[in-house]
Design goal:
Pfam family, one: DUF2496
Number of domains: 1
Shape: flat
Protein name: DUF2496 domain-containing protein
Strand content: under 5%
Helix content: over 70%
Largest sheet: none
C-alpha cells in the first residue's frame, strides 16, 4: 500500500480493497454492478434502521 493510500480515509481504503477483490475474481462488470446495487441497498437500509433507533432514544 502506498503512503498516499495509508493516509487515506477509511472509506477510500475500503473501496480500494473491494475493487482489488472484485478484479481478482475477474467477474463481468455488469454482474459486479448489479451485486453492488444490492449491497448498497442493504447498507442504506441498515443505516436507516440505525438512525431510527438513535432518534427513538
Amino acid at each position: 500500500m502506498s503512503n498516499t493510500l495509508e493516509a487515506a480515509p477509511p472509506h477510500i481504503k475500503l473501496a480500494v480493497d473491494l475493487i482489488m477483490l472484485l478484479e481478482q475474481h475477474e467477474l463481468p462488470a455488469d454482474q459486479v454492478l448489479t451485486a453492488l446495487d444490492i449491497v448498497k441497498s442493504d447498507y442504506q437500509q441498515k443505516l436507516s434502521n440505525c438512525e431510527k433507533e438513535k432518534s427513538s432514544m
